[in-house]
Amino acid sequence: MANKPDDRRFADVEFDSYISDGAEVHGSYRGKANLLIAGVIQGDLEVDGTVMVATPAAVNGDVSGINVIVSGRVEGDVRARKVAEVRRKAVIKGSVVAREVFIAVGAQVGGDIIAHGKRGVTSFRERRPAPAGEPGPKQP
What we know:
Elements: H1 5-11, E1 17-19, E2 24-26, E3 29-31, E4 35-37, E5 40-42, E6 45-47, E7 50-53, E8 58-60, E9 63-70, E10 73-74, E11 78-86, E12 91-92, E13 96-104, E14 108-109, E15 113-124
Parallel strand pairs: 1-4, 2-5, 3-6, 4-7, 5-8, 6-9, 7-9, 8-10, 9-11, 10-12, 11-13, 12-14, 13-15
């Protein structure tokens, strides 16, 4: 993935709301602040900002936001008004729809991938440092 303005924005995102690892939420979630999920959500998410489904998070429902980053598990559709980034540990059992879709080598998507912008779908090798306890990407 080339260094473009969206990359810098994702690196600089400040998450105003957080669902921690070990927390479980039942029901739909709607909000206007950027949301980082590390726990479990049983229901749909609709955020007017950036949503990150981190490892080891799980969402059993649809996820939508301006930008959506998935490195955990989603059983539902992912919809982003701008960019959807599917990282290498992500497992999505549903479709991904966005203006631009970035999919890391190793990610799993079990539905359609629809990119309706000029750039379309881009695959990439993740080069970010792996979180503690997670093996890093293999180097060629």
